[in-house]
Write a structure and sequence with these properties.
By secondary structure, this protein is α/β, with parallel strands linked by helices. Helix content is 47%, strand content 20%. It has 5 helices and 7 strands, in the order ββαβββαβαβαα. It has a 7-stranded mixed sheet, sandwiched between helices. Strand 1 and strand 2 form a beta hairpin. Helix 1 packs antiparallel against helix 5. It is globular and about 50 Å long. 27% of the residues are buried.
Length: 196
């Protein structure tokens, strides 16, 4: 399914059975995690695709410019990500306005938000949706697992970065594995349902 956003910009639904879609989403989700790590120094939460999400690519002239994962049950955007080379064109604003216009109630952005996300939510008059307690617990468990894994396997010791924080190179390597694992789980479930 393709939805026209503006001249040359479209939404196209993510297909977990299409390798090109899986590879592109994994690359963008990894970039999202790495960028957020640079900003907040730890794992940014949110799923790129899951059974409760509608995930769409944001295309510009047929090229993947970003993606959005929408929790339709809560009328909230779990993640919206625009590739750096496509930023500054108003794509996130366009995508959120289109989604808000089709939403049966006020659209929300899932927290925590980046400073840019906060500004965008304010400008578009979007609500905020906090994580449910079970989501918060799952997020904290994932963060602890990642940090414990880094501490157990890091060979850099205290020679790299702030000694009070996990090793930056190992954290980035772990985030890449985490991104792949998150998407692989969903894709495997979708393939099982499709009988492939």
């Amino acid at each position: 399914m393709t939805v026209q956003l503006a001249d040359g910009a479209t939404f196209e639904e993510f297909d977990a059975l299409r390798k090109r879609d899986v590879d592109s989403l994994q690359e963008m989700f990894t970039d999202y995690l790495l960028e957020e790590f640079q900003r907040i120094n730890e794992l940014a939460f949110g799923n790129p695709a899951a059974g409760y999400l509608i995930t769409v690519f944001i295309h510009v002239d047929g090229q993947d410019a970003g993606f959005m994962a929408l929790d339709a049950g809560r009328h909230s955007v779990e993640i919206i990500y625009i590739k750096p080379e496509y930023r500054g064109r108003g794509l996130a604003t366009l995508a959120l306005r289109q989604t808000a216009g089709a939403c049966p109630q006020q659209l929300a952005l899932k927290t925590p938000l980046s400073p840019g996300g906060e500004a965008l939510a304010d400008r578009l008059d979007l609500a905020r949706a906090d994580n449910f307690p079970h989501e918060e617990a799952r997020n904290e468990k994932a963060l602890r697992t990642i940090q414990d894994g880094i501490k157990a396997t890091c060979t850099h010791g205290k020679r790299v970065g702030d000694p009070r924080k996990p090793c930056k190179p190992c954290y980035q390597k772990t985030l890449r594995r985490y991104a792949a694992l998150q998407l692989d789980r969903y894709v495997a479930a979708e393939r099982a349902v499709a009988g492939r």
